[in-house]
Structure formats: structure tokens, C-alpha cells
Design brief:
This protein is α/β, with parallel strands linked by helices. The chain has eight helices and twelve strands. A hairpin with a 4-residue loop joins strand 7 and strand 8. Helix 6 crosses helix 8. About 5% of the residues have low confidence.
């Protein structure tokens, strides 16, 4: 029997909450509903979930704070915000926290379902991609050997430092996909503070230099959000 994806749903609108539970469960998910941020956090701590759907405007603890607390405990669990907020600043704030997507109320339930499935498919793909990094990886004209910290192109070889290797490994595991800045920082530095962020920028600059012999390779900066290793 296939294990159901377990969803944490935090929504203070009782009617909407019950409707979403019914809709998601009818589509094969296991859903637990909480009506305020504090109850939602307690539920997350005391139970196991695979996915979070959070309203932004919540009693007790707002969705931004709740997402931050969840991210401290689980850096990779997918999070979608349900929100009536449409300001650019609010979206940037959410993405900086590390949420995967926004859906603005009112919304179509089928759209929500499609976005959940797209994120789950991407996460599953990322896990498969990361398994590949136990061996040789092609990045354009380069051959990357993460196990031996080696980057090669034709006769040129570059032995990476441990930190350079770990940053490149995270980017290469998700080629042509966004890797969030705070995910890299929390995974490799243990904290996403200002000084670690500046240190990350230095390593990104070094990796760009190492990869410049192939014009089709680019580490694109998505301001305030993260990086994409583009391999045409």
C-alpha cells in the first residue's frame, strides 16, 4: 500500500479549513488541520509531516513566524503560503524564509493541487539527482568528481577546497533549478547571518571563476533568494 503524503494545514478560517481537508483527502493526502499558529507549531513538533500549507494571517503566531520555526527544525520540508497579501515585499519575505510557493486567496482548489504535486515531483527529482553526486557528474564541458573534490576540463584540473566542493555539490544536485541562499547557508554554515552570507558570495565568485572556460555554464544570482547553476 502506498504511504500517503502527510500535510500540515494551518488555517484559521474554519469553513475553508474543512473544505481543504475534504478536498485534499479526496485526492489521496493525509491532512491534519490546526486553527492557529501555536497549535500548528505544536502539531509539527509532535507529529511527522511531509508538506506544510500555512495561512499567513493567523492568531497566536503569524504564518511568517511559524514558517521560520518550522524551517529551524526541518530545512527541506515543502511549504506553501495561503495569503490575501499580494505585496511584493510580503512575497520576498516569504521566499527569504524558504517557502516554496504562494497562493493568493481566493484560489482554485485544482490549482493548489497542481502546485502541491509539482513541488513534490521536484523534491523527489532532487533526491534522485543528489544520489548521482556520489559519482562523476557532467557540468557542461566539465567533469566534476565531488568524492575527490576534483573539477576537470580537458587537461586542466582544479582541486576544490572542502567548502567550495560542498557549495558546488548543492548547486550541481539541482542543475537549472533554484537553490535557496538560506538553504545553502544553514546546511553548510549552520546559520544564515550576514557574515556567513558574505562568505557564501565569495565562494560563488570562486566557482564562477573555475567554470568560466565553458561559456554555456553560468551561476545565476536570483537577488535575495538564491542561485541557479545553468547548464545549457
Amino acid at each position: 500500500m502506498k504511504v500517503k503524503t502527510r500535510i500540515l494545514l494551518v488555517e484559521d478560517d474554519t469553513t475553508m479549513g474543512f473544505l481543504l481537508v475534504d478536498f485534499l483527502e479526496s485526492n489521496g493526502f493525509d491532512v491534519k488541520l490546526y486553527k492557529d499558529g501555536i497549535l500548528g507549531l505544536n502539531g509539527f513538533v509532535n507529529h511527522t509531516f511531509d508538506f506544510c500549507i500555512l495561512d499567513v494571517m493567523l492568531p497566536g503566531m503569524d504564518g511568517f513566524t511559524l514558517a521560520q520555526r518550522i524551517r529551524k527544525k526541518d530545512k527541506s520540508i515543502p511549504i506553501i503560503f495561503l495569503t490575501a497579501k499580494v505585496l511584493k515585499e510580503d512575497k520576498i519575505k516569504g521566499f527569504n524564509i524558504g517557502v516554496d510557493d504562494y497562493i493568493v486567496k481566493p484560489f482554485d482548489e485544482d490549482e493548489l493541487l497542481c502546485r502541491i504535486k509539482a513541488i513534490l515531483n521536484r523534491c523527489n527529482s532532487d533526491v534522485e539527482d543528489k544520489v548521482v553526486l556520489s559519482g562523476i557528474v557532467k557540468i557542461g564541458s566539465y567533469t566534476y568528481d565531488p568524492d575527490n573534490l576534483m573539477l576537470r576540463i580537458e587537461k586542466d584540473e582544479k582541486r576544490l577546497t572542502h567548502k567550495e566542493n560542498e557549495v558546488l555539490k548543492m548547486l550541481a544536485s539541482c542543475k537549472n533549478k533554484l537553490v535557496r541562499r538560506n538553504e545553502i547557508l544553514n546546511t553548510l554554515w549552520g546559520d544564515d547571518d550576514y557574515f556567513n552570507s558574505r562568505s557564501l558570495d565569495v565562494f560563488i565568485a570562486k566557482l564562477r571563476k573555475y567554470l568560466r572556460q565553458d561559456a554555456n555554464i553560468k551561476i545565476e544570482n536570483v537577488p535575495t533568494v538564491g542561485f541557479v547553476l545553468k547548464d545549457k
